[in-house]
Hints:
Elements lengths: L2 H11 L4 H9 L6 H8 L8 H13 L5 H11 L3 H14 L5 H10 L3 H14 L5 H7 L5 H13 L6 H4 L8 H11 L5 H10 L5 H25 L4
Amino acid sequence: MDQNSLAQISAQLDSPNSKDRLLALASLRHIPAEDAVPLIKKVLYDEILPVRSMAVFALGVKQTDECYPILINLLESDPDYGIRADAAGALGYLEDGRAFEPLVRAFYEDTEWLVRFSAAVSLGNLKDIRAREVLLKALESEETVLKQAAIAALGEIKAVDTVDQILRFASSDDWLIRQRLAEALGSLESEKSLSALRFLAKDDHSQVSEAARLSLEKLEAELSELKKASDPMA
């Protein structure tokens, strides 16, 4: 990367105008991580919350060895719940298995639903089957978005043995829950998933029925391949 360009971005990050600082962060999109992270750190504790939020998100995308401990520190100790939620989300982007325990703690211990939501989503991104119990607990939440996140994440971690627990949401009043269910079932290979997807493919909401149709096609193809592999004469 041209050093003059980096110097210009660095100067823009020092601008008293928050819009300039946001634009500078956006311009780091195509900058190599090793050059971008030192610049991101300049505004990690910016006085303007949207600037901080964008910087935290950027640490999840521009991955160096520095990013993980910074994000963990923000998740566990930042006084602003929005930043803690951003840090949880960024840890999901990192896909670093070390984040499993901190994300589980955030889900159980943080009092803000947004942080717990981000933690649940990121546990799905980690694709760690150990998240199963946490996500099942999230299904019992009074927060609809937590249920949505948990259903999606159970699909991400391919927790096939939880199909019975999530099928009860096939008749949920919330169409987004039904859509997340339709998407998740496409990754949970079982006959019950097929039956549920055929039901959801008839849903009155077009986004639910379309998600179910796509998942059904995917799942039928995968199960067919598995059958062929186990029975060459089939």
